[in-house]
Amino acid sequence: MTKYVDRPIPQISLADFDKRKDEITRQLCEAAENVGFFAIIDHGISREELDAAFSLSKSFFELPQNVKQTVALTPLNAGYECRSQVRPSTGVPDEKESYQLQFGENMGDRWISDEHLPGFKQSSLAFMHRLQAVSEKLMICVARGLGFPDGYFVEAHDVSRPNCQTVMRLLHYFEVPKETAGKVYHRGGVHADWDFITLLLQRQGQPGLEICPGREVVTEWAKGHAWTKVACDPDSIVCNIGDLLMSWSDDRFKSTLHRVKSPEDEGDNYEERYSIAFFNQPCTDALIQGPQKKYPMVTGQEFTANAIARNYKALQEATNGAKA
């Protein structure tokens, strides 16, 4: 049985942002230092916009499998995948499908055609820009907290540039049979994100997100540690610090382990779950180094490549350990 502990998830209002920048900066930095997760409210995206985005996502995932495969995932993290993401924490594919959407040249021809889903590209990009605008407010506060100019991180994550790497990921977790006959289903294995800040949108009545604060447990993939369930509030946006910001802050801000719960305890959700994740990732030529220069300077492209390599190494070690 999973061990749980109640931890407060800080809630930060973005209301009157221009007048409250200093207050919001203090709240955000405190949450980033102590929890690595927080929820934002008064973010300016209406319930109608959120509902429309989830409706569009559901329309995509309801397409025939052969149609979805016409935009199959590329090595540049753009396109559709199904039961193909393997976490080192589990060694088996997550029980989900997802569609990675990007602003820049990495997306290429991986937009589903209007023949199959009219207006999908235009509607998705419009919503992505809405999330980017929210992200930029957070970036301004992070920059202030670290002593950088207000626009420092906004410029590094400029989605108008063709070499941007920011991703919006549409996610659909499959319904899991209640009678598993001993089989363990992993919806979203334990992991830490490698981006700057992740924004996560959830649906009412579709819980599953759990966190395990404390960066020191990453190398153990949170085995034996206590978890906290994150409330599923459709009007708030759950945000977590990624490995990139942890490095860029000289480890001041904490990248936090999280997962989408595998059903095993009484009261777990066995039904399908939809969520939307927005991963803020820098342009490939952005220069990454914290104010105290704790780590060598790297580009956005190098950081992403290194993160992928670390994940692959961890997966290989986990796989080899399971075989031993």
TrEMBL record:
Name the InterPro entries on file.
DIOX_N (IPR026992), IPNS-like_FE2OG_OXY (IPR044861), IPNS-like_sf (IPR027443), Iron_ascorbate_oxido_reductase (IPR050231), Oxoglu/Fe-dep_dioxygenase_dom (IPR005123)
Where are the coiled-coil regions? none
**Domain Fe2OG dioxygenase: where?**
164-282
Q: What domain of life does the UniProt record list for this protein's source?
A: Eukaryota
- Pfam families found in the cross-reference section: 2OG-FeII_Oxy, DIOX_N
* Gene Ontology molecular functions: metal ion binding; oxidoreductase activity
Keywords from the named record:
Iron, Metal-binding, Oxidoreductase
Q: What are the BP-aspect GO terms?
A: small molecule biosynthetic process
Q: Which family does the similarity line name? A: Belongs to the iron/ascorbate-dependent oxidoreductase family.
In Swiss-Prot or TrEMBL terms, this protein is called Fe2OG dioxygenase domain-containing protein
Q: Which organism is it from?
A: Hirsutella minnesotensis 3608
